[in-house]
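Final report, closing paragraph on structural work. Over the funding period we assembled a curated collection of sequence-structure pairs, and we close with a single example.
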Amino acid sequence: MILVKKGFALLAASVLTFGLAACSNSKDTAGADGKKVLTVSVEETYKDYIESIKAKFEKENDVTIKIVEKQMFEQLEALPLDGPAGNAPDVMLAAYDRIGGLGQQGHLLDIKPSHTKSFGDKEMQQVTVDGKVYGMPLVIETLVLYYNKDLLQTAPKTFKDLEKLTEDSRFAFASEKGKSTGFLAKWTDFYMSYGLLAGYGGYVFGKNGTDPGDIGLNNKGAVEAVEYAEKWFKTYWPKGMQDNSSADDFIQQMFLDGKAGAIIGGPWSAANYKEAELNYGVAPIPTLPNGEEYAPFAGGKGWIASKYTKEPELAEKWLEYATNDANAYAFYEDTNEVPANTAARKKADGQKNELTSAVIKQYETATPTPNIPEMAEVWTGAESLIFDAASGKKAAQTSANDAVNVIKENIKEKYVK
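Its predicted structure, as stored:
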């Protein structure tokens, strides 16, 4: 599941409800046995994991853990209304790019964690806004390269290797002469193409993603990246790759049918390839033509606590407990999602799982997705950045300039007072 671009309507709605923050949570936190109750919200797929780790926490803190099953993004969208009404859970999971906005708008408990040494700067950056920590990192996530082991002996190492695949007749696209499916990537999607832009020196916001007044998506490097993307769309790829609504289906089908040698995708896709019994490999995305590494968005999710909780101390203890070395690794064993906890991640890397190792390696070059509310305008403003150039509608520089102007205007209209 892609953990970005989802549910940004929350940002506007939560501003309207912020004035309700003074309302107290009316929920009685005592259970039938007189013990305090801490409500933990997770999706159904994580329920068994919570059941497996809760007993120790309950015993050490004389508390009862109550599990609520709810889809993560639904829970986050409900928090601004449910919190003041006393109906929100105490703790829940959140995609990193959602934490900043919820924290700034007063819906999250800011914490003073004691074991941040278990995480690197990149992990803590994704749960920190304006110097305040609003959660604890649980999982890291980024794009990787999938390749068909029946078609390629080894993973491509450079984009020059990928370009060579277009000369292989096995990947010729029959209905369009001269076109190839040797390597495919949904670059019309900003989330998928950002690693290309960043690898050439483009960036979303300055000051490590915190300065919306400094947008680097139309600088010299970003434009070079767009021009390189144009080469793929115009020279190598079938015309259908320009259709953002259907390109992903096309890419997935070509890969599953053994007609694509390599594709860029997320770790969430691996389950489908495994179910299809595809002989696939996973590796970091190849080095770009300029000699730099592909630098996709770094994402994932962490534990957060509601500002409206009646048990802030217990909630903060849960955040640290659920992300400690042992529990972070247990989460990996249960879900195969790569731990943010560095000790647990090292142990996971030792399992020699190709997907795990590829995500860990690629994460080294990945850029944390800005977690400030203004990021919502980037997703919409940059939607056609690559498409307009790839389709010949605009020159690369013009397309980049227009996208940045749209982003700036929307930020000015919605966020600048």
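The longest strand covers residues 297-305. Residues 6-27 have pLDDT under 50 and may be disordered. We thank the funder for supporting this effort.
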